[in-house]
Design goal:
It is globular and about 35 Å long. α1 packs across α2. A hairpin with a 3-residue loop joins β1 and β2. The protein has about 170 residues and is an alpha+beta fold. It has an eight-stranded mixed sheet with strand order 1-2-3-4-5-6-8-7, sandwiched between helices. The chain contains four helices and eight strands.
């Protein structure tokens, strides 16, 4: 069984393990259709997000897979601004990561800071040796974030997204 995620912090952000109680505030943070331009879908209502958070909090039905999710709190504002996540596959010693920062907080370096912090945090997890992300080929901002976190593009594709990878993490 993979242990749950612990909190971590960066210079301006606190990454707090996801709780269902964050759903209402996060629904407001994520309430912009532009956030779904590369991933599909649409903003979720607080109730829909609460249901998703309940599923995530229950954890993966596979004991060899950990669903780790954190909300990002901007310390100077004491409010949530986005989230990061890692799906940890113990068998492969791999973590697939993702990040989303609300529109209001974009362009301030929060996504980069969060992704770099997440990769550093995962470096201390014995179940993780490789970190990957899947990025839409037209999403230049996410590619820049991945590169800042030390990931490099590979020749592998999954569902129209390029696999980015960083080995030797843990």
């Amino acid at each position: 069984m993979i242990p749950g995620p612990g909190p971590f912090a960066t210079a301006r952000l606190d990454a707090l393990p996801l709780r269902v109680g964050y759903a209402d505030e996060m629904a407001a943070v994520l309430d912009d259709p532009a956030l779904h331009a590369y991933t599909g879908g649409a903003p979720e209502t607080p109730g829909e997000l609460r249901a998703r958070y309940e599923r995530w909090a229950a954890g993966s039905p596979d004991p060899g897979v950990g669903w780790w999710n954190w909300v990002l709190r901007v310390r100077g504002e004491s409010r949530l601004a986005g989230y990061v996540q890692a799906t940890v596959h113990a068998r492969d010693a791999e973590a697939e990561i993702a990040w989303v920062v609300g529109t209001r907080w974009q362009g301030q370096g929060y996504a980069k800071e969060a992704a770099v912090g997440l990769v550093a945090h995962l470096a201390g997890v014995r179940e993780v040796r490789t970190v990957v992300a899947h990025i839409h080929p037209d999403h230049d901002a996410s590619a820049a974030v991945a590169a800042a976190a030390g990931l490099v593009p590979t020749e592998e594709w999954c569902d129209g997204e390029r696999r980015w990878e960083r080995g030797g993490v843990g």
